[in-house]
């Protein structure tokens, strides 16, 4: 028998109290958190700003993962970005001021943002998923489900980029 802890999150079964239609989004976010935590366990803070061949740095991806998840969830709730969120958006581009705890702090920030997103998913009635939502100042049209799916997809895209960049800069 396979140990459930070694399976990808989506293969471990439904999450308690998670609406059925939102399970895949929750699974993707939890998978990203597990992979990020493992990959960044011993990652040196001094490599956070490295940009091999001009690609985005690990530091950028770590900040962006938390920030974009927060912003997309805000739009899904029909909210406008706060001054704090706008300031965080402006601060996503490194170079970061780093210390020995920077990686741990950024990973914890993402973990907390995943917790907040999961709470929002649990509280989202399935009958609201097709409700229209506006994105950004221009109020580009989307829907609740569109924003939530994009939050998971965007998280996975940046996770892939982060994982590759981390391996490249650590190998130098």
Automatic annotation (TrEMBL):
Transmembrane segments: none annotated. This is DinB superfamily protein. Signal peptide: none annotated. It comes from Hymenobacter arizonensis (Siccationidurans arizonensis). Gene3D superfamilies: dinb family like domain. Residues 29-162 form the DinB-like domain. InterPro entries: DinB-like, DinB/YfiT-like. The lineage of its organism: Bacteria, Pseudomonadati, Bacteroidota, Cytophagia, Cytophagales. Pfam families: DinB_2.
């Amino acid at each position: 028998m396979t140990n459930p802890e070694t399976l990808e999150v989506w293969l471990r079964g439904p999450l308690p109290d998670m609406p059925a239609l939102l399970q895949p989004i929750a699974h993707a976010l939890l998978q990203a958190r597990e992979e990020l935590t493992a990959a960044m366990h011993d990652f040196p803070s001094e490599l956070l700003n490295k940009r091999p061949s001009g690609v985005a740095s690990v530091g950028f991806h770590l900040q962006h993962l938390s920030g974009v998840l927060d912003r997309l969830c805000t739009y899904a709730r029909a909210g406008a970005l706060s001054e704090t969120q706008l300031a965080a958006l402006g601060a996503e581009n490194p170079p970061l001021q780093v210390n020995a705890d920077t990686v741990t702090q950024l990973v914890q920030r993402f973990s907390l943002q995943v917790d907040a997103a999961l709470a929002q998913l649990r509280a989202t009635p399935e009958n609201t998923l097709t409700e229209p939502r506006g994105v950004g100042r221009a109020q580009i049209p989307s829907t609740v489900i569109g924003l939530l799916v994009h939050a998971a997809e965007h998280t996975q895209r940046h996770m892939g980029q982060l994982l590759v960049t981390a391996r490249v800069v650590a190998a130098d």
